[in-house]
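Figure-free illustration: sequence to structure, shown twice.
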Amino acid sequence: MGLKSTVKKVVGPEQWNRIRSVRQSYGEFKERYVTLPREAYRQMKRYRKYYSRPSGTAAEQIQARLIFHTHQIEKGLSHTQFRYGFGKNTLKEEAQYLKAYMRAVPNYRNTMPYQSAIAALHEYYERHEPEHKEAVEYAQSLFPAEVWKEVVEGAYSNGGSLVITANSKQNNRSATFSQIVDSRHSIREYANQPVTLDELMPALQMAVRTPSVCNRQPVRVHVVTDPVQIKQALKVQGGFNGYPMPPMLLLITADCRDFLNSMERNEGFTDAGLFAMSLMYALEAEGLAACPLNTMFNRAMEETTRSILSIPDYENLALYISVGHFPESVKTCVSERHEVTDIITVH
């Protein structure tokens, strides 16, 4: 007879069940108040050590900030209501990190971040020259002469803005998956017509087939169509400034009650990300335009958002997706991607 069976026989069933209950309570207490804080702290330390802070000197950190500011320039170039002379602070930051990137990466001219930055700056130059020389002169003053020469010459084309037409999306339902992936872009300006729940449902029906941890399906979708709520929510979010409000806004969340232990504390964001990408491809297949928007909020922003949209405390905010119909023609960011060989490590 094993030790467990012997103890159970000696103390009796009633006392044994009490022992089990105490053990379970202790285990739960340890999980909630020891293991979870410890693991969250360990994760925080890693992030704090490596994230791309302004003073970061690693090539990857500099690259992240260069790509970020290039994207800000691309967004400015994509506005239908184009504002001449936009982005002075962004251009200054772009110049700072471009020069740092050139110092950190020996073969910088052969990389996507450098080429995309030059291409976006070339479009900025072309949109302002010759009528708005003061904007061109300001931009030119920020960059080394050899860089500005490449900007003026338009040495690269993999950055800036591009035009998307509604006509190009008419046959999306019959397109292959690879065609959907290759042609999808984030669209921030939409046709002046509502998106109905009936139009949204086919895409949601496809998205619910997304895998999740042990099929627990923690993702929740809050569909916002009230223009006042959309405006309030996006004002807090801050990434849609300068664009007309979308006719529909989706908030993707993850229900914490579907997870079992501290090791799964981040799983909701993983499952929500998988779901959101399935949904965006499904929206594209249904001929609807969309753009993901982050919900990386501080406490005040999160609390305000929860109040505006009545989001329960047990749901973690993962991201927004703005949704609308494609306008006849619209500009969007090129958003050039890395080569596959730049992101893989074969073990």
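We now fold a second protein in the same way, so the two outputs can be compared directly.
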Amino acid sequence: MKFFKWLVIGAGPAGILAVGKLLDLGIPEKSILWVDPHFAVGDLGTKWKNVPSNTKIKFFKKFLNSTKSFHYKSCPKNKKLKKKPEETCFLKEIVSPLQWVTKKFLKKINHEKKYIQSLRFKKTKWEFEISKEEKAYAENVILAIGSDPIQKKDLKKKFIPLEIALNPIKLRKKIKSKDKIAVLGSSHSAILVLKNLYELNLDIKIINFYRNPLKFAVEFPSFILHDNTGLKGTTAYWAKQKLLKNIPEKIERIHIQDPTFKNKLKQSNKIIYAIGFQARKITIKGLKKCKYHPKTGIIGPGLFGIGIAFPELISDPFGQKEYNVGLYKFNNYLQKILPLWVGVL
């Protein structure tokens, strides 16, 4: 029977961060077990790396430099971020140094390349399977399991996954001349999908169905209004030019309460959902109630969450609440709550 002080599930940015922060606190390397099926920087490295980021380089650098055990200063030049601090980049540029950190950690941290689909709370420990024949136990578990796009498959229409819609090269293979594509949503992802479709320069019709009006991030001296929900960077600029001024003939925007909504939706032959993300599920056994607290990261006794599946709930100076999503934001959140996790054990 194997026993670990800490089990970290997931090796995306949040999982890498969790391992790094544990090491920074002096948690012994051999008391940590890190589990992931790929160790390829999660969805960021496998699905979203060709997506343009809305985060400035300076915040990615702050993220990489805020965890001592990352040793970002010794990262090879060909792996480091190269753009100027105020510029943005494609996500693959942050994947490269994070993959370098992952490889360094794997040399000294216990790790298993597998999925963990369930956890069972037994007395004061968490039981999980390493293999069909072997069970192991951890005193504490950090879930950094990521999220999936909310998508509803319509059997009458050809469904295009968001992963493909956000990748111009893959998207081109799915779109033909005369297609009528429905895009649901008004978030950063939805507008980026509209931009990708428009820039294919094909004879197509793009219908954007939305619930909420376009929202743009606004920088104030001490904070950013709509920092997590507003459009930023090149996507914001494109939206202002193409969706607020002179809307191109091939693009139509329809509110879901518009009387023509259902009829217009029926006219489309392909559909793309960009309506948000939902946390991946992991089965928790042995506890009657288990609920994530968005201020402490605590899910249950010795069970914690971090990353896009478990973000911090914040309020801006105007009292508006939103979930704080972004690598440097995850860093700041974990910096606050990890001592609590360690201290309450």
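Summary for the second example: The CA atoms of residues 37 and 114 lie 4 Å apart.
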